[in-house]
Amino acid sequence: MTAKLILGKEVSEEIYGELRQRIEALKARGVTPGLAVVLVGDDPASQVYVRKKGEMCEELGMRSTTIVMPKETTQEELLRKVAELNADPSIHGYLVQLPLPDHIDEEAVIDAIDPSKDVDCFHPSNVGRMLIGDPDFLPATPAGVQQMLVRSGIETAGRHVVVVGRSNIVGKPMAAMMVQRGAGADSTVTVVHSKTPNLAEITSTADILVVAIGKPRFITADMVKEGAVVIDVGTNRIQDPTHPKGSRLVGDVDFDAVKEKASYITPVPGGVGPMTICMLMANAVRAAERVVG
């Protein structure tokens, strides 16, 4: 068996097509969805991600605002900018790009964001709504994974989903979403992490394995059940002297070995990655739709 690839570009293009129609409907009512991103400092990875968000906004016909603040910005200055964005009616959704410089309390900044504009779904209010199954927004990467499953025709109801990793960005919300009632969920969910004994025994029982542990090629073929669906959220740069750049990206899954055992698998790059920005755009459109009613 060689697994069928689930490609984020293909799934995201389908969603973008739907979003364009919703954006046109909003514009017909005099509203252009507005998304703002606040970037503090000069982290290269964050700069690339923020640029891609702006480019996608423009491609979809949304209003894009990027606010770049120096790494010396104080917490008080950043909180004032958050307050300005909360009060700006032209900005329907925004996010403060993480990580922030060490001298800024990320939790305090997230708490200050208006939950109705929190398109990253990091505010405790939105996390709570997601947990009880009544979300305004869903966190972008887990939502992207769920859409990949749904739009690939993969049954989740009653299936055993094992989530490897317990971060607030992927692992915990992924588990919470998959256990809800409804399409793309209704699963039996197990979460494993670095302190889990017999981790391989548990992953090998998964019908659907979602891996977000941040360790290159951590999941090997012997840890995967024959015919499982494997979703690799990890992105790790490793040294590779055979590559023109001297390094390359790999996931948290040993792709070459596992693809011979899985039924479906996401590659890295090209798998989950494109879905994160896609679902962020979807949240921004939803935020604008909630304003117009």
Number of helices: 10
Roughly what fraction of the amino acids lie in strands? 15-25%
The stretches of 5 or more residues where confidence is low (pLDDT under 50) are none
Q: How do the strands line up in the largest sheet?
A: 1-11-8-7-5-6
CATH H level of the largest domain: which superfamily?
NAD(P)-binding Rossmann-like Domain
Number of strands: 11
Describe the structure.
By secondary structure, the protein is α/β, with parallel strands linked by helices. The chain has 2 domains: 30-114, Rossmann fold; 140-275, Rossmann fold (3-Layer(aba) Sandwich). The protein has 10 helices and 11 strands. The chain has helices at 8-28, 44-60, 75-87, 106-112, 124-131, 140-151, 171-178, 199-203, 255-258, 273-292; strands at 4-5, 34-40, 63-69, 93-96, 160-164, 188-192, 208-211, 229-232, 236-239, 247-250, 264-265. The protein has a 6-stranded parallel beta sheet. Strands 3-2-4 form a 3-stranded parallel beta sheet, with helices on both faces. The longest helix is centred in the N-terminal third of the chain and has 21 residues, at 8-28. The chain starts with a strand and ends with a helix. The model has no long low-confidence stretch (mean pLDDT 96).
